[in-house]
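Hi all, posting the design record for the shared folder.

TITLE: backbone redesign
STEP: 1 of 1
STRUCTURE INPUT:
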C-alpha cells in the first residue's frame, strides 16, 4: 500500500540499490526489474547512495567486458544521477550494524542506516545473509529485487 502524507502526496519507499542491481536497471535493462525502474521514475521509490558508492559505480561502468559504448556512458551516468540521490556520509553511532563478510559491501548497510531506508535491494549473498540481523535490530529489510517486487504494492 502506498502511504500518503497530510497533503495527499506519496511518501516514497526509501531504498538502497547495490551496484549489481544498478547494472541490471541502467545497463542491462533487465525486464524483470522494469517495475522497480518505473517506481524510481514515478517517485514511488526513492533511492539513495553515497559519493564513494557513486564513484564505485563510475569505475564499474568502465569495465571493458560491459556492453557499454562511450556514447551510452553519459546517458547511463545521467539516469543514475537523476534517479538516485547522493547523500553525505553520516555517523549514527547509536545504531550498530552487523558486519558484512565482504568489507566492500559494508557501505551499503551504512547508507541504509543513515538515510533510514526501508529496504536494501541486493543480489549479494553476503548482504542477504544479514537480513535477519538487520530486521531483529529494527533497522531495514534486505531483499533481492524479485523478493522486493513480490512484496511491494505501489497502489
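Okay, here is what came back for every position:
SEQUENCE:
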Amino acid at each position: 500500500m502506498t502511504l500518503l502524507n497530510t497533503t495527499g502526496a506519496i511518501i516514497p519507499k526509501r531504498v538502497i540499490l547495490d551496484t549489481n542491481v544498478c547494472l541490471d536497471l541502467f545497463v542491462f535493462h533487465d525486464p524483470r526489474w522494469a517495475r522497480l525502474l518505473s517506481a524510481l521514475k514515478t517517485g514511488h521509490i526513492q533511492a539513495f547512495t553515497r559519493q564513494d558508492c557513486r564513484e564505485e559505480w563510475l569505475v564499474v561502468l568502465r569495465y571493458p567486458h560491459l556492453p557499454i559504448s562511450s556514447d551510452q556512458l553519459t546517458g547511463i551516468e545521467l539516469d543514475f544521477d537523476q534517479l538516485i540521490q547522493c547523500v553525505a556520509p553520516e555517523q549514527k553511532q547509536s545504531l550498530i550494524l552487523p558486519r558484512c563478510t565482504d568489507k566492500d559491501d559494508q557501505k551499503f548497510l551504512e547508507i541504509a542506516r543513515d538515510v533510514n531506508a526501508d529496504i536494501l535491494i541486493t543480489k549479494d549473498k553476503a548482504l542477504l545473509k544479514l537480513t535477519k540481523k538487520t530486521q531483529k535490530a529494527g533497522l531495514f529489510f534486505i531483499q533481492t529485487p524479485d523478493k522486493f517486487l513480490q512484496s511491494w504494492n505501489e497502489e
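COMMENT: The two ends are 6 Å apart (CA to CA).
Let me know if anyone wants the other runs.
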